[in-house]
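User: Need the bound-state model for farnesyl diphosphate:
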Amino acid sequence: MISAVERKIEQFIRDLDDQMVESLYRRLPHGKRLRAKLILRIAGSGLRAVKTAAVVEMIHAASLLHDDVIDDAYVRRKKPSINALYGNKTAIMLGDILYSKGFFELNDIDKRVSKTISNAVTQLSLGELKDVSLSKRFNTDKSQYLQMIYQKTASLIEASAEAAALLAGKAPEPYRIYGRNLGLAFQMIDDLLDITSDSDTLGKPALHDFVEGKTTLPYIYLHEKLEADERAVLSGLHAKKLSSKEQEWIMQRMEKYQIVMQCYSEAKLLIDEAIELMNEAGEAALSDIAQEMIERDF
Ligand code: FPP
Ligand code: MG
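Assistant: Bound-state model below.
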């Protein structure tokens, strides 16, 4: 029933009665609609659930429009980003329009749902700010990284699961934990893919995150494992454009210390916990979504 969510978003956009926004929205490739799927699986496909799912996807799209400006990213979902095509001003304003229209619609759904979702958007913004400030130095503190990814990514997935449970009259707590674990694992896998996926142009990982200054979990673990002299080499490469040799140096050490496996196991633990919780709640159908999360491109 995900098509009902697509139709609802299109209707919200049409309400705005603006040709430019309609045409920009058509240019926006949507992703897997994970958050919407989660909401419908928990709450069914009644009107309030469909509206909540549409609003959450609009907020998520807005956050990515802004994120691509903040990250100077010119590719999103293998296509040129809106900021690449039309510049930063258009990308920011389109984000603001999606976000504010989403909020307007949210007010009509349910007070508890709107509180849950709006609180998560504050967390998203705090998380994005933390991501930017942590990138200024080589962050070696795992708890800071976990808090940042919780805020930046997991908070909206957690809120989606919680809001859906509220709409369905289910006890929210297990759904909240399920959503949080899914969100944390999602971002951990995303950060791993930056190391394991070959870039289209180079045919090997470009290590974009590290070049941008982001010391994600694999770099924190690698830093822990290295001897002092090699640690200094790694720190010296932080936030710099890397030569092929430097990329290989990092990748060789990632392999030597089996960093990818260490991070993957940690994400898998979170997913296993989420699946167990849902099995206990008699929601086996929610296990599939959790499973999909850690099977992305691996
Ligand atoms: C992607 O992170 C970014 C997010 C998940 C959150 C972005 C949040 C904001 C910009 C603040 C909220 C703003 C609004 C309008 C609601 P990433 O850069 O690690 O992932 P990527 O590889 O997908 O770019
Ligand atoms: Mg980004």
